[in-house]
Design brief:
Number of strands: 13
Largest sheet: 6 strands, parallel
Structural class: alpha/beta
Order of helices and strands: EHEHHEEHEHEEHEHHHHHEHEHEHHEE
Oligomer: single chain
Length: about 425
Amino acid sequence: MNVSSSTVIAVVGLGYVGLPLAVEFGKQYPTIGFDINQRRVSELMQGVDTTLEIDQADLTAASRLTFTTRPQELVRASVYIVTVPTPIDRHKQPDLTPIERASETIGNVLKRGDVVVYESTVYPGATEEFAVPVLERASGLQFNKDFTVGYSPERINPGDRSHRLTSIMKVTSGSTPEAADFVNALYASIIPAGTHKASSVKVAEAAKVIENTQRDLNIALMNEFAIIFKKIGIDTEEVLQAAGTKWNFLGFRPGLVGGHCIGVDPYYLTHKAAALGYHPQVILAGRRINDNMGGYVVGQLVKKMLKSQIPVVNASILIMGLSFKENCPDLRNTKVADIINELKSYNVNIDVYDPWIIPEDAQHEYGVTPVRELHEGKYDAIILAVAHDEFRAIGSQKLHSYGKPMHVLYDLKYMLPKDESDMRL
């Protein structure tokens, strides 16, 4: 089992994770980029990436990369890398349907000697306990005899121009020692930052899920601090700046926790723990705090409006930002949607403005039709929900001009100096 320049690689799923991976492999190896979304594939074939992670020059540089929606074309590959989403359902339980479907697609073309690598975030054990049986059923082949698997957790940070695929150390693993060596060598060939070969697939799976669980808990702690400091009557940012003068104080900030990873991955770990008879306490406590922040934000806004004698019913409210984080169009699991849904219960009129997002996606995912331009003197309240660079550049004077003579400007992201907004998280 050796890596060679003729090794054909198939990347299944061409989103934020799969496309950068396919591009890097496509610079060195014959690579098939597969996705079931015809629009996505057509755009990529024209050199357009709507996620804005890869520009046209990078796509052109991947001279050995082709795109397809035809599953039968995957038969040419000997290595399959699965980069499909792993969401949670409305009961906050793991939804492994995309993994199952991708595994079935691969199983239908799987051959003896092939390797299947999963990058999608899952609970420890899911690759071998859930995905492998699907591969076996669809292919009729036997695991670790006819084919092997690996796991290499994705570490993509949408919108981050500093931490890219090739500059982040890659964790790798395999279901046999030979598979582990092969998977590690394959990734090492495209990742200058290096690799870390885990001792087992389960260890690699666990490493991924705790990376984001740790961050989730840190932000939950900051959110709880913010709630407490609001009751005390002191400014959270001032407290954190003071505490941050100590060398080992971690620089987390309160906020909305959405996206495809941080707000989702902890539920994969707690699901596995519960299945083993252990009911996590700290992890779920942090999740409850972060999941409820949208409602908390709206509650604080309504109180401020009432204290300022601004009628809430039929008020016009502007929300600036809908993506789950700054400077990217990613709408997955955005917690700004929680603010919108909570505000609707007060019978207010809501405008959402976000120059980064694709309007059709906002309408499809959340039933939101973003406004394309802003008008002065229109709003009773303005919420700065996402810290896009464009919003920072507007400045507080212009931001306030969008409000009526009496309005509230709520800065969730500490974009403005304290005295230039009416309230902060």
